[in-house]
Specification:
Helices cover 40% and strands 14% of the residues. By secondary structure, the protein is α/β, with parallel strands linked by helices. Helix 5 crosses helix 6, helix 5 packs antiparallel against helix 8 and helix 22 crosses helix 26. The chain is globular and about 85 Å long. InterPro entries: AB_hydrolase, AB_hydrolase_1, AB_hydrolase_fold, Glyco_trans_28_C, Hydrolase_4.
Length: 720
């Protein structure tokens, strides 16, 4: 135990415990809204439930044992709701349901009756039922007692018999109950540490401890657990006649594997799928494998499909472009155009969300129809941002629901269509889940990125450093075990742009590891700098006067930069006073409302500027947030600029800052260190100072395209 009374693992992997009853916001899921939610009441106890999805068969999750709540299904329920009408509920004692404090309110009969009450309230006449852990017993009972109602039964890590038959078993149960009541954090650490026995499980462990167990308290959960003990549904299992799937990890340290064998032996025709190396909660640790097995077993197949003969297929590429800002999609389009120059018959389909999707549509590109089913990663980052502050590592870490849903949608696309290649620009969801589910890879995959390695930003924050190193180690082990997942890994930059820092204690140097595992292409500009060299012509084209001093402030395609724009706007009157002919244009982007910014004479606010780099190329000064793409475009067009990286954003503060130094563009400013007057003076001084940047390579997009084509043509190994 540490001085704060928390187990060491809990302190490092999860952090501080919340107040009992605290639920995450939004609850239960970030990427999907309920079609219906409400409460059913029995004997004065309310049970919360929600329906997600409006079409397809009913898929009901029996409410999870009180140590958890519906949040634990966040990796699977959002995607399953695209195929089924999914029902989740919180068992009395956790989540949004009531927490009675008497033992008689917690019995297996009550739990089963609560499940029935929700099913009846929703008037469901035919359903597939899923039971996880203890609640598999309620699912088995429903399938046995109402066979006309249950089409399929799924038991995952499920108990069938919780009878305490020996003195040792009864003593262990009493010790567990005592620890629940007297040392709740210690119990949660022990329980979920055992539940997630798989390596690199810090994120599901954190969610389970803080957002599931932490949402209740030890006394309540002890009451709830007592209600499960002594239950035996083996006789009911023998009466089940519907198709039954039993999923169970062979390393499950909570529910013995023998329980799965008992269920499979009792239910006629049951399928037993063993998860080799798997722990207790497959739905949380391996959401892709869990969700796909449930979908395929219950059978929500598409009504129509098409199979095209191999030689009748046109060459196609699916291009996944990160929608966090607009820089990725602009360089990706430059690469795609180079691909089509070399192979004119290549069809490129795009897989992304707003604002990247809007940019591509304006450029006449084809978006895959399934893009409408994707969760928006930009929105996730916006929710995590503060006042010019974004803890980027934790924003990435908490994007697991988004990643699971989007990867599963991606798998749906590749299930129905053939692509000759998949190209992913920082497509972390595909890269991660391909490595976790390597059997799903069906075509060449090229991975692009402009940074490698998550790095801690808060000095003395032991937890951040530990978790960064754990994530990096996971990535390193993925690549070492499955080098063929990435047919080519492309670093959009040069070797010296990679920091010479360790991934973490005992881990390799980032630059050396990247050199061994990536091809370097130089930066991929979305334009030829020579075409933008005539600043007077650009000003005429875009409606700026030739004789005015033009300052442009831009923050990219998310609303994260809104505080920076407001600070710049507040400093503008001071700049205008010293430079009367100054005009400032604030490019708010598509996600910052105009009325969120102040108004001043000489200051214009534009909601969106297509191909912003053309405007920046004729500005006397640019003030930008600090992301790589805009900064590299300014270096390429040799414009003076200041960059204001977000606090605690490791990519902007470390990776991009190093690259700016490499191009002799050391113009980084910490916004919190400047008042309005200092900001105005620094901006004007920079506007009148000459630049001496290192030239940016102009063939980066072509070099990246050539690397991709080598993979598509699969002839790089052949003799010339």
């Amino acid at each position: 135990m540490n001085p704060q009374g928390l187990p060491r693992r809990l302190q490092l992997a999860a952090g501080a415990m919340p107040e009992p009853g605290t639920l995450p916001k939004p609850y239960p899921y970030e990427t999907v809204e309920p079609v219906h939610e409400g409460f059913v009441e029995r004997d004065g106890v309310r049970t919360w439930h929600a329906q997600f999805g409006e079409r397809g068969p009913w898929l009901v999750f029996s409410p999870i044992y009180q140590i958890a709540n519906s949040h634990m299904l966040r990796g699977v329920a959002p995607w399953l709701s695209q195929h089924f009408r999914v029902v989740v509920m919180d068992l009395r004692g956790n989540g949004r349901s009531d927490r009675p404090q008497t033992a008689d309110a917690y019995t297996f009969d009550h739990y089963y009756a609560d499940l029935l009450a929700v099913v009846d309230r929703l008037a469901i006449d035919r359903l597939a039922i899923v039971g996880i852990s203890a609640t598999a017993m309620a699912a088995i009972r429903l399938a046995a007692e109402q066979p006309q109602r249950v089409s399929h039964l799924v038991c995952a890590g499920g108990w069938v018999d919780m009878t305490l038959r020996t003195g040792a078993a009864r003593e262990a149960a009493e010790l567990a109950l005592a620890k629940m009541r007297n040392n709740w954090p210690g119990f949660l650490d022990g329980f979920f540490g055992a539940a997630f026995s798989e390596p690199h499980s810090t994120k599901p462990y954190e969610d389970a401890v803080l957002r599931n167990g932490g949402a209740s308290d030890g006394t309540t959960v002890a009451l709830g657990r007592n209600g499960w003990l002594g239950t035996d549904v083996r006789a009911a299992a023998a009466r089940v006649r519907c198709p039954t799937l039993v999923l169970h990890g062979d390393q499950d340290k909570i529910v013995p594997f023998a329980q799965a064998e008992t269920i499979a032996a009792a239910v006629p025709g049951a399928q037993l799928v063993t998860i080799g190396g798997g722990g207790h909660l497959l739905n949380a640790r391996d959401p892709v494998a869990f969700a796909r097995r449930v979908r395929d077993f219950v059978g929500a197949a598409p009504a129509r499909s098409t199979w095209v003969r191999g030689m009748a297929r046109k060459p196609k590429a699916l291009f996944l472009s990160s929608a966090i800002g607009l820089g990725h999609v602009q360089r990706d389009l430059a690469i795609a155009r180079e691909l089509r120059k070399a192979q004119p018959d290549l069809q490129v389909d795009w897989f992304t969300v707003h604002p990247a999707s809007a940019y591509l549509e304006r450029e006449g590109e084809r978006l895959h129809p399934a893009c409408g089913r994707l969760a928006n990663e930009s929105r996730h980052f916006e929710r995590r941002a503060g006042e010019h502050d974004l803890q980027a590592f934790f924003a990435l870490r908490t994007m697991d629901e988004v990643m699971a849903r989007n990867f599963l949608v991606f798998c749906d696309v590749l299930r129905e269509e053939h692509y000759d290649i998949v190209i992913g620009d920082e497509a972390w969801e595909v890269d991660y889940h391909y490595h976790e589910n390597p059997e799903l890879k069906r075509q060449p995959f090229v991975f692009l990125t402009d940074f490698v390695g998550c790095l801690p930003m808060e000095e003395g924050n032991e937890r951040e450093a530990f978790l960064c190193a754990d994530r990096n180690a996971d990535d390193i082990e993925h690549v070492a075990r499955y080098p063929w997942i990435r047919d080519r890994a492309i670093f959009v930059g040069n070797e010296e742009d990679v920091p010479q820092l360790p991934f973490g204690p005992g881990l390799p140097d980032i630059r050396e590891w990247t050199r061994r595992n990536f091809a370097f292409t130089g930066y991929a500009l979305p334009f030829d700098p020579a075409s933008l060299a005539d600043t007077e012509a650009l000003r005429v084209r875009h409606g700026y006067r030739r004789d005015e001093k033009l300052m442009i402030a831009a923050v990219g395609g998310t609303s994260v930069g809104a505080p920076l724009l407001r600070r710049i706007a507040d400093a503008f009157p001071l700049m205008k006073k010293q430079e009367p002919g100054l005009r400032m244009v604030l490019v708010a982007g598509p996600r910052v409302p105009r009325d969120a910014l102040p108004a001043h004479e000489g200051l214009d606010v534009l909601p969106y500027v297509h191909n912003l780099f053309e405007h920046l190329a004729c500005a006397d000064l640019a003030l930008v947030q600090g992301g790589l793409s805009t900064c590299m475009e300014l270096v390429a067009t040799r414009r003076p600029f200041l960059r204001f990286p977000l606090e605690r954003h490791f990519e902007q503060c470390i990776h991009v800052t190093q690259r700016m130094h490499n191009y002799c563009a050391d113009c980084t400013v910490r916004l919190r260190e400047l008042g309005e007057r200092e900001l105005a003076e620094r901006a004007l001084r920079t506007m009148h100072s000459p630049v001496d940047y290192k030239p940016v390579e102009t063939d980066g997009a072509a070099r990246a395209a050539q690397q991709i084509l080598e993979v598509m043509r699969n002839r790089h190994w052949a003799a010339a």
